[in-house]
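Example 4.3 (complexes with small molecules)
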Amino acid sequence: MDRPQWALRTARTQYVISLTADARSVVLDHWGPPLERVPRYDQSERVLSHITETDALPVEYASDGQRHTAFTELRVDRGEAGTGAIWTFDPSAQVTTDASGDELVLTAVDETATLRLELRYRTDHAHDVVARRMVLVNDGPDAITLPRAFSAGWNLPVGQCARVEYLAGSWAREFQRRSVDLDWGTFSIGSSDGITGLRFSPVMAVTGLDDHEHATRSAPAAGYGIALAWSGSWRMQVTSSSVGEHVRVSAGVDDHTITVALLPGEVFESPESLGIFSAQGAAELPQRWHEFQRTLRRDIRRPIVYNSWMATEFDVTVQHQSQLAQLAAQVGVETFVVDDGWFLGRTSDRDGLGDWTADPAAFPHGLGELADAVEGLGMDFGIWVEPEAVSPTSRLFAEHPDWIYRADGRPLLTVRNQYVLDFGRSEVVEWAERMLRDVLNSARIRYLKWDMNRTVSDGGRAGDPHGREWAVQHARGYHRVMDMLRREFPEVVVEACASGGGRIDNAVLSRSDVFWPSDQGGARDRLVIQDGYLSAYPAWAMSSWVSDDSGHRDRRAVSLGYRFAVSMCGVLGIGGDLLAWSASQRSEAARMTAFYKDIRRVVQDGTVRTTGAPDRDLYTVTFCGPAEDPRAVVFVFDSDRDRTRDREFPRVHPAGLAPDVAYRVDATGETVTAASAAALGLRVPFAWAPDAEVLVLTPAG
Ligand code: DGJ
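Answer. The structure with DGJ bound is encoded below.
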């Protein structure tokens, strides 16, 4: 009898796996364009020497005990009873299909019949993501630990070697695009910060190395994207090996700092890992991610925000904020947000966190006074919070000194003068929920920016068998409170932030409406950050304020038009000190804000593609609108004004225009199509600003 084979369908691809003859492993047969017949992966057709079979097979989920020398996604420690697990899968599993997609649950039991493993797969016929997770149940009488409990192993049929593209960075320099060519070796990225982290983003693009001696079966041009939908500590490892025909990506919760405990009867459910394929290579993967992410989006207006942080920092008073609000209303802002500094004792970053009531020195009549004033100006009102943090001087800390992380009684360590609350404890999460309900009910608040400004050091809980899982529990506690906000305060727009882009991932995306990708206010530096961000995350969630900052790296002056154009590539906001702007700057701002309102639908509901490098070329960001507004908007940024000035009519070659549509370019009267734009380009008159152009392309006729 043929070995069982299971096929899952996505919008354009097929993911096919089968059971080995001994029923011990599930292997990948095919991941790519749909095929009529997919042969089962057969090891006997391949040369195997000096190695066990499971170490060479493209197994879907590898466990120590079963694999011997190659990397495994699961490590099981039974103490004196030994390590590892050998699985036997149930061959009778079936793919179930409903109107939206396919689902498959593969179950296996280990050789002691005390551990149950589930490999869960989910696809959606509207996009190309295959979503996978692992569930492990301890049916036995003894506690076990899992030093590694990853979500999935992905076998990428690109040959033995690969180019890995990833996003790396640091504070104010997030989402820098980097790549590495792996020619037999391992590469790993991750976070042990307790949050997604600033250093790496849990997503990567993998392609075969062209003309490489070990490039095999599938076209080397094919691109695979792997992500982890997780907001706590994590790790993704790529293994390029001299054995086999696949590059393997293993992804899951961080195994350096997390040990999962499974007491008798307990269940561990991993976060979801996501995989996508594109026959057109890595360049097409952003579109595939964005297509999937649109299905996570809820239907709520993402307003043009004025955020007062950069203008006032901790110097918050109702009078000053009201003055800013008046000017914000004049330039067309829709929501006025008071950032850090509004609550009890928060006059610097040393105090106040945890005591979430309006400081009477700043707001003698509570937050309601400013909220009413803002509403009277025709805007919504919003605030900033950092629920996971507590200042050592706060009342909350005095009342609950035991609520913070302090593993093994080590000396307390502050970062930005604050501690972190243990969101793995239900009483802390319940406190956070109560606190947020009270704050949100204290005035008409329609926008909440949730920040988190430090990595977690010394996480853990001595004496708790689950204490070394704190980073998993913390992320779950955070998700639980975010879910409460969505449920109980659906009218509140939620912005996710962690010192800038420290907590941006696909799990937060399904719980927040916008992301704050970086504290970088310099428009040129920010454009580089946005370019990296857009390679994995959507424009409709990319909050971007026009600021007064000259930048940290590229400090060359830019026009106000350039700054607005950068922010208009996502969800436009303003963060500069409007009181310091001249009247003519403010009226220019009002004009550009009104323009953004006109094209917002194209930007937020359309598709986006970039060409060129933001710091080197005439870089373009092109949005192609949805059926309801089929215009296209091409943003052009000049990274080298002097060079461009030499040419009378610089031309750009934007990608991403709708095929078979003739557009009229508003600023130049030219008629273009996707093909002519690629071949001949578009003329850039730089009418919007001397260093940036915004071209609106309207379908002709
Ligand atoms: C870090 C954020 O990224 C900033 O936008 C601001 O909210 C500060 N925290 C406030 O402390």
